[in-house]
Automatic annotation (TrEMBL):
Enzyme class: transferase
UniProt entry tagged with the keyword Electron transport: no
Cofactor list: Zn(2+)
Binding site for L-homocysteine: 438-440, 606
CDD domains: CIMS_C_terminal_like, CIMS_N_terminal_like
UniProt xrefs under Pfam families: Meth_synt_1, Meth_synt_2
Name of this chain's protein: 5-methyltetrahydropteroyltriglutamate--homocysteine S-methyltransferase
Cofactor binding, note field: Binds 2 Zn(2+) ions per subunit.
Source taxonomy: Eukaryota, Viridiplantae, Streptophyta, Embryophyta, Tracheophyta
Keyword tags: Amino-acid biosynthesis, Metal-binding, Methionine biosynthesis, Methyltransferase, Transferase, Zinc
Residues that coordinate or bind 5-methyltetrahydropteroyltri-L-glutamate: 18, 116, 522-523, 568
Residues engaged in binding L-methionine: 438-440, 491, 606
InterPro entries: Cbl-indep_Met_Synth_N (IPR013215), Cobalamin-indep_Met_synthase (IPR006276), Met_Synth_C/arc (IPR002629), UROD/MetE-like_sf (IPR038071)
């Protein structure tokens, strides 16, 4: 039977692409060097799948930054501010859109559906002139063919591309982006024609927007678009893939009813109801079902016996040869290869499957479905599944009981936030428009070396502590010189905002090379939550206490919230996510209260990923927000009124969950604002009252561009038009970990100057 992989990680098993990109951006290597690294990675991936026996191997899932940005380049939708005058979209234009440049800010970046992957948001309007401006998809197909490997070129489908776009600056907010389909489709037709001429047999269009709750007229638009494209395909077979949720019944009926569609890819891991839909509504015998039974978003080994049973049921319903075994989504969201992990023990490794192992699972399931079952492989899998269910390292009855006991309370602080802010101000004595940063300061090469050296025992623990304390002292002194009001210690001891805490909690495991792309060259190494979670001892108190001893200004204690730890980890799939969240929340609650006892009066509990976990279907969102927000409140409900609780969120759309954010009951929230064109402020213009402190970011830290003082001051003025000065804070969009000091110092200098200008303006009007 046939097998299919929807997509594969791009960074390489040891982040080869990351290092090549950053070397190129720093001017240390050439475009040719970058292209060679990319070509070698692509060849390795295609050969790996070919050798494994994958029937449908994807191409064009590689990207130098993001597949949506690749589509923007393909269709020539480059915003005018980048000075592109036509022709092929070259690296300078491509990376300017992604990262900004000295003169222009980057395009908005936001989360790809409900994942931690970020895409660059297309900016479109009535003036856009779509034209084929990148032949990357053709070049990669040809490249694989020259290696003797037939691939399936993959494109972001036209409906999803426009659904993820936003009106360009100056275009009405209610501009009908889907109305651009008629202008967009000729480019897709041209691409289809070139792939046909090159000999392609199949083409894959990813249309995950179909899993969303769509108005009926959007289904009509989708149908019209594919009916318009239909004559272009000819003998080229079309596979349309959806993922991340159940496919709604109207979308299922539409997709399976389109004559031009030869294969339909469905997520049967997160789309559990879709299985019943297939069985009840049926599936056309003229099409192939690409059954996504191997999880593309987690690292647990597939339960092969259960998957084979399901595949057998589907095949008996659809007919022999009509079911293709597939991944539930692209494997982009998983780590690359378990064979690179040298520190995980044998039992734990037997429970796991990274992208390379998932290829083997897909091929093995396809073989078993076709009557060629690898009995040894299936037996080993069954043994691992059984050991995980009973292992004492997974289950802790005391933790389970403590988390279950949380259900009886809402865990709210007794005093209203306005009164708490008054009490806090008496102690903190902050100026109007207080300035702060989000937490991290630049992670220099020397700093990373110190952390590596202590792990490899090249330096002693005492030498490590001395080096970290020296860095903290330097960061504190720098902030005082900049005249920032509420300080941070810079987090030099932390490798990652989730991994750092996971390393100190029970129930977590860690990889050496389990890297996953978040955006561009930025990779994260998610912890693996395999068991019940507890905190053996304090995690941050010593560093925070030392940092506070260096200054009379308030020093923030910096923690990562339970929902972000959950959403940025590979989470156990043997219990509801809600239960795991409550276990983590109890651990963070203990840490918050220990920080308060140590004299830390401002504590930030980051929930950067709260929005990310929001289910895609509206009917499921209220339940998620209820337990996610409750999890945050558990962490902070035990502190005194004089202790100020901050939280931070970034790079998602927040307007639709503002009520839930208010319900978190934090004293201050800092939130990304500048890169998304101040979209956040619109919710306050529409009448939402926010009584707590709030710091919408005044500059984008994910771009090397340094905004001047007046630009930041103007952002603050816009904020003051909709927010009271007594609740407004001034801060960057996000942490400064990925930036260089040569960028950070002038940017923070300008930020503090902007805050002082606005303080003077406010004083002159009173």
């Amino acid at each position: 039977m046939a097998s299919h992989i929807a997509g594969y990680p791009r960074m390489g098993p040891k982040r080869e692409l990351k290092f090549a990109l950053e070397s190129f951006w720093d001017g240390k290597s050439s475009a040719a060097d970058l292209e060679k690294t990319a070509k070698d990675l692509r060849a390795s991936i295609w050969k790996q799948m070919s050798d494994a026996g994958v029937s449908f191997i994807p191409s064009n899932t590689f990207s130098y930054y993001d597949q949506v940005l690749d589509t923007t380049a393909m269709v020539g939708a480059v915003p005018p501010r980048y000075g592109w005058t036509g022709g092929d979209v070259a690296f300078d234009t491509y990376f300017s859109m992604a990262r900004g440049n000295a003169k222009q800010p980057a395009m908005e970046m936001t989360k790809w559906f409900d994942t931690n992957y970020h895409y660059i948001v297309p900016e479109l309007g009535p003036e856009v002139k779509f034209t084929l401006s990148s032949r990357k998809v053709l070049e990669e197909y040809t490249e694989a063919k020259e290696l003797g490997i037939e691939t399936v070129p993959v494109l972001v489908g036209p409906f999803t591309y426009l659904s993820l776009a936003k009106p360009a600056k100056g275009v009405a907010k209610d501009f009908d982006l889907l109305g651009l389909l008629e202008d967009l489709l000729p480019v897709y037709k041209e691409v289809i024609g070139e792939l046909k001429s090159a000999g392609a047999k199949w083409i894959q269009f990813d249309e995950p927007a179909l899993v969303l709750d769509l108005e009926s007229h959007k289904y009509d638009v989708f149908k019209k678009a594919y009916s318009d494209l239909a004559p272009s395909f000819g003998d080229l077979k079309l596979l349309v893939v959806t993922y991340f949720a159940d496919l709604p019944a109207p979308a299922y009926e539409l997709l399976t009813g389109l004559e031009c569609v030869d294969g339909v890819g469905l997520d049967l891991v997160r789309g559990t109801k879709t299985v019943e839909l297939i069985k009840v509504a049926g599936f056309p015998s003229s099409k192939k079902l690409f059954a996504g039974v191997v999880d593309g978003r987690n690292i647990w080994a597939n339960d092969l016996a259960s998957s084979l049973t399901l595949l057998g049921e589907l095949e008996s319903k659809l007919g022999k040869g009509n079911v293709v075994v597939s991944t539930s989504s692209s494997l982009l969201h998983t780590a690359v290869d378990l064979k690179n992990e040298t520190k995980l023990d044998a039992e734990l490794k037997s429970w796991l499957a990274f992208a390379a192992q998932k290829i083997v699972e897909v091929v093995s399931l396809a073989g078993a479905l076709g009557g060629k079952k690898d009995e040894e492989f299936f037996a080993a899998n069954a043994s691992a599944q059984a050991s995980r269910k009973t292992s004492p390292r997974v289950h802790n009855d005391e933790v389970k009981k403590a988390a279950a006991a949380l259900q009886g309370s809402e865990h709210r602080r007794a005093t209203p936030v306005a009164d708490r802010l008054d009490e806090q101000q008496k102690h903190l004595k902050l100026p109007i428009l207080p300035t702060t940063t989000i937490g991290s300061f630049p992670q220099t090469a020397d700093l990373r070396r110190v952390r590596r050296d202590v792990k490899s025992k090249k330096i002693s623990e005492e030498e490590y502590v001395k080096a970290i304390k020296s860095e903290i002292a330097s960061v504190v002194k720098l902030q005082e010189e900049l005249d920032i009001d509420v300080l941070v210690h810079g987090e030099p001891e932390r490798n990652d905002m989730v991994e750092y805490f996971g390393e100190q909690l029970q129930g977590f495991a860690f990889t050496v090379n389990g890297w996953v792309q978040s955006y561009g060259s930025r990779c994260v190494k998610p912890p693996i939550i395999y068991g019940d979670v507890s905190r053996p001892k304090a995690m941050t108190v010593e560093w925070s206490s030392y940092s506070q001893s260096l200054t009379k200004r308030p020093m923030k204690g910096m923690l990562t919230g339970p929902v972000t730890i959950l959403n940025w980890s590979f989470v156990r799939n043997d219990q509801p996510r809600e239960k795991t969240t409550y276990q983590i929340a109890l651990s963070i609650k203990e840490e918050v209260e220990d920080l308060e006892k140590a004299g830390i009066h401002v504590i930030q509990i980051d929930e950067a990923a709260l929005r990310e976990g929001l289910p895609l279907r509206k009917s499921e969102q209220a339940a998620y927000l209820n337990w996610a927000v409750h999890g945050f409140r558990i962490t902070s409900c035990g502190v005194k009124d004089t202790t100020q609780i901050h939280t931070h969120m970034c790079y998602s759309h927040f307007n639709d969950i503002i009520t839930a954010i208010i319900d978190m009951d934090a004293d201050v929230i800092t939130i990304e604002n500048s890169r998304s064109d101040e979209k956040l402020l619109s919710v306050f213009r529409e009448g939402v009252t926010y009584g707590a402190g709030i710091g919408p970011g005044v500059y984008d830290i994910h771009s090397p561009r340094i905004p001047d003082t007046e630009e930041m001051a103007e952002r603050i003025r816009k904020m003051l038009a909709v927010l009271e000065s007594k609740v407004l804070w001034v801060n960057p969009d996000c942490g400064l970990k990925t930036r260089k000091y040569g960028e950070v110092l002038p940017a923070l200098t300008n930020m503090v100057k902007a805050a002082k200008i606005l303080r003077a303006e406010l004083a002159s009007t009173h």
